[in-house]
Amino acid sequence: AQSVTQLGSHVSVSEGALVLLRCNYSSSVPPYLFWYVQYPNQGLQLLLKYTTGATLVKGINGFEAEFKKSETSFHLTKPSAHMSDAAEYFCAVNSGGYQKVTFGIGTKLQVIP
Amino acid sequence: NAGVMQNPRHLVRRRGQEARLRCSPMKGHSHVYWYRQLPEEGLKFMVYLQKENIIDESGMPKERFSAEFPKEGPSILRIQQVVRGDSAAYFCASSPPRLAGKAFEQYFGPGTRLTVT
């Protein structure tokens, strides 16, 4: 079985401040992990993914995430928030053999000017 | 290369009517997934299909919901006798065959927002 927990359904940061969105997962096998972003009334866009190899993964728009097996975490960070980063962010895990993906409930990021 | 296409983008149905949601995967993608998104609940997996085959429908309600991905044409998610609780955003995603090297990425369409009145 696999599951994802996103801590904090709403996060507010000031423009220019550090963005930290938390994600913990549960998986019986080594997981594949993803972060997606959703802008209002749009579909989900892949930000970054971890499959194997380097545990620090860089994605689009300046985001990155670090896979920490000992903590079963895959937190998303960005050094400096922009207004355009305001959106909903979903962490997801895949540990099945055929690509079934389980999503977290999402974290809405608000960026305050 | 066009992305995943979904239509209609918005669909309004009265209780008891049928809703048909269409999804055209990205070119070269043979795997299609349907998800339902309710406010404050994230995305819930419904069904995973390949051409002419349902691989996993463990997330589909037992009644009124069905999905297909025919040899030709788009994938269809069909909801019969809709009820107010079916109101949600329905997203389709596609991915390439596993041997393509990017098999674990799913590409999402813009969604269909179903409103049942």
Structure description:
The complex is a heterodimer of chains A (113) and B (117). Helix content of chain A is 0%, strand content 57%. Chain A has strands spanning 2-7, 10-14, 19-27, 32-38, 44-50, 56-58, 64-68, 73-78, 87-94, 102-103, 107-112. In chain A, the strands form two sheets. In chain A, strands 2, 4, 5, 9, 10 and 11 form a six-stranded mixed β-sheet that branches. Chain A has a five-stranded antiparallel β-sheet with strand order 1-3-8-7-6, with no helix packed on it. In chain A, β4 and β5 (44-50) form a beta hairpin. With 117 residues, chain B is mostly beta strands. Chain B has strands at residues 5-7, 10-13, 19-24, 31-38, 42-50, 53-56, 65-68, 75-79, 88-95, 107-108, 112-116. In chain B, strands 2, 4, 5, 6, 9, 10 and 11 form a seven-stranded mixed β-sheet that branches. Chain B has a four-stranded antiparallel β-sheet with strand order 1-3-8-7, with no helix packed on it. The A-B interface holds A 9, 32, 34, 36, 41-46, 49, 51, 90, 94, 98-106 and B 4, 6, 31, 33, 35, 40-45, 48, 55-56, 91, 93, 95, 98, 103-111, 113.
Write the layout of secondary structure elements.
The complex is a heterodimer of chains A (113) and B (117).
Chain A: E1 2-7, E2 10-14, E3 19-27, E4 32-38, E5 44-50, E6 56-58, E7 64-68, E8 73-78, E9 87-94, E10 102-103, E11 107-112
Parallel strand pairs in A: 2-11
Antiparallel strand pairs in A: 1-3, 3-8, 4-5, 4-9, 6-7, 7-8, 9-10, 9-11
Chain B: E1 5-7, E2 10-13, E3 19-24, E4 31-38, E5 42-50, E6 53-56, E7 65-68, E8 75-79, E9 88-95, E10 107-108, E11 112-116
Parallel strand pairs in B: 2-11
Antiparallel strand pairs in B: 1-3, 3-8, 4-5, 4-9, 5-6, 7-8, 9-10, 9-11
